[in-house]
Specification:
With 309 residues, this protein is mainly α. It has one domain (3-305). The chain has 13 helices and no strands. Helix 1 runs parallel beside helix 9 (198-209), helix 2 crosses helix 5 and helix 6 runs parallel beside helix 11.
């Protein structure tokens, strides 16, 4: 999806989960890894790196300068912060007693802070401003709710699987996630060439905003019975549980990665939710059914636009 569509879809997920739509902007953060080019889709798109990205982005978006949309002042503030983080990272790299995790965390904190601060103005004044036309003014009030930000961020890679394969589980597993069957059923080259043309993507974006899939009820019982388990809850439809929706999206990313071990998917879920203070089992039956229905809706619309001849 293009950046604006990522924000719109994230906003709809947040709305369906009764979380602030002001967190929709986090859905574009993975695009920071276009620089340096050797990181592209291989760094900020990885689940393993995203909890730290949420932490860093929430700190930047919470600054008075960002809230006031005073971007020259934000750049001055963050230049000093990044300089300090670069020095700290250099010290850790030079410390023979530092662990691999400590070196990685220091390097990533400096990198994510630099790139998110560098792109903040563009994200807010262009991509977010365009998405607000669909989502409404609430989306422009940037939220620092960590659960909402995390859901929005993971949605980027989840929806990216409609565009191209993504190695989202690296370093736990090198299997790539994508809608492989969709790619085989459409004119993929025409899809890649034309999908983001304004005459195509804008009606698609609007149609997804107005889709019934966001209002449809998906009870948990059927999923649980099929798997031989007792239903965890009788409720159906909105609002979905934010943590459960994150879990469901990661489960679907696993289902779209041929050959991946279930253990790698489960570990990725635990590692993603733990920084949010969520260490207990999170039932996600109805959220998983919702994700499947949402994917089917998107897939059907893409197939209609780009039939294979």
């Amino acid at each position: 999806m293009d950046w604006e569509t990522h924000i719109v879809l994230a906003g709809k997920l947040l709305e369906a989960s009764a979380l602030p739509k002001g967190a929709a902007i986090y859905s574009v953060l993975p695009v920071i890894d276009i620089e340096p080019i050797h990181y592209h889709r291989q760094y900020a798109h990885l689940l393993a790196n995203q909890p730290l990205m949420v932490e860093v982005a929430c700190e930047i978006f919470a600054t008075p300068e960002c809230r006031a949309r005073d971007f020259p002042a934000l750049r001055r503030r963050m230049a000093a912060v990044v300089a300090d983080l670069d020095l700290a990272a250099a010290r850790v790299q030079a410390d023979p007693a530092a662990s691999h995790f400590e070196r990685l965390e220091a390097r990533n904190r400096a990198y994510f802070t630099h790139r998110i601060a560098e792109e903040a103005e563009h994200f807010i004044t262009r991509e977010l401003a365009g998405a607000v036309e669909v989502l409404g003014p609430e989306a422009s009030e940037i939220s620092t709710d960590r659960l909402a930000a995390s859901l929005s961020l993971v949605s980027h890679t989840y929806f990216d699987t409609f565009n191209n394969p993504v190695g989202v589980f690296i370093p736990l597993a090198a299997n790539y996630s994508a809608h492989w069957d969709l790619f085989a059923s459409i004119d993929y080259l025409e899809y890649k060439a034309s999908f983001y043309h304004p005459d195509v993507i804008r009606p698609f974006r609007r149609a997804m905003d107005e889709s019934d899939v966001w209002r449809e009820a998906f009870p948990a019982e059927e999923e649980a019975v099929r798997d031989g388990r007792r239903p965890q809850a009788a409720e159906a439809g909105r609002p979905y549980h934010g943590a459960a929706l994150i879990k469901a999206m990661i489960q679907r990313l696993g289902a779209l990665a041929p050959g991946i071990s279930p253990g790698s998917v489960e570990l990725a879920i635990r590692n993603f939710l733990a920084p949010l203070g969520l260490r207990q089992i999170v039932p996600a039956d109805r959220e998983l059914r919702f994700c499947r229905a949402l994917e089917a809706e998107i897939g059907e619309r893409i197939r209609a636009l780009f039939p294979r001849n």
